[in-house]
Design a protein that fits this description.
Helices cover about 25% and strands about 35% of the residues. The chain has three helices and five strands, in the order H-E-E-E-E-E-H-H. It has a five-stranded antiparallel sheet with strand order 4-3-2-1-5, with no helix packed on it. With about 140 residues, it is an alpha+beta fold.
């Protein structure tokens, strides 16, 4: 019989052992080619979803907020353009897809806006500092 040996690269073996789940905070070092040079770019954030597990076409989605704008990237698990994946923190979540996190930031902003609308306007004739309060106490007494 013809026996075919499958050669597995160390990167593939390492990524198969890596257990990425939704809710994990990860750091992904991605190789970027610019003007003939390659450099590593760090993308760290929360894993929103893992699709197709550890098979050849498996992907995971990472979200981070940069300068107040949400940025999401979808990374293939076995991409040769990924240098390293590091799981920084694990969070216990109840869902396998955390797409609802996209809306949470806007809800937070809306809630803050609602709170600013509820602030009462203090008339100018009401004294708020301590020296003024003592003067009012002397006048009343």
């Amino acid at each position: 019989m013809n026996s075919h040996k499958m050669i597995v690269s160390p990167v593939v073996a390492e990524r198969k052992k890596l257990d990425i789940r939704a809710g994990d905070t990860v750091k992904v070092w991605q190789k970027i080619q610019e003007k003939g040079k390659t450099r590593l770019q760090l993308f760290d954030g929360i894993v929103l979803a893992v699709k197709h597990g550890k098979e050849a076409g498996g992907t995971f989605t990472v979200r981070k907020v940069a300068s107040g704008v949400g940025v999401e990237k979808i990374f293939p698990i076995f991409s040769p353009m990924i240098d390293k994946i590091e799981v920084v923190k694990r969070s216990k979540v109840r869902k396998s897809k955390l797409y609802h996190i996209r809306n949470e930031a806007t809800k937070e902003i809306k809630r803050q806006m609602r709170n600013t609308r509820l602030i009462k306007v203090v008339p100018e004739d009401v004294v708020t500092d301590e020296a003024g309060a003592e003067a009012v106490a002397e006048v009343v007494a």
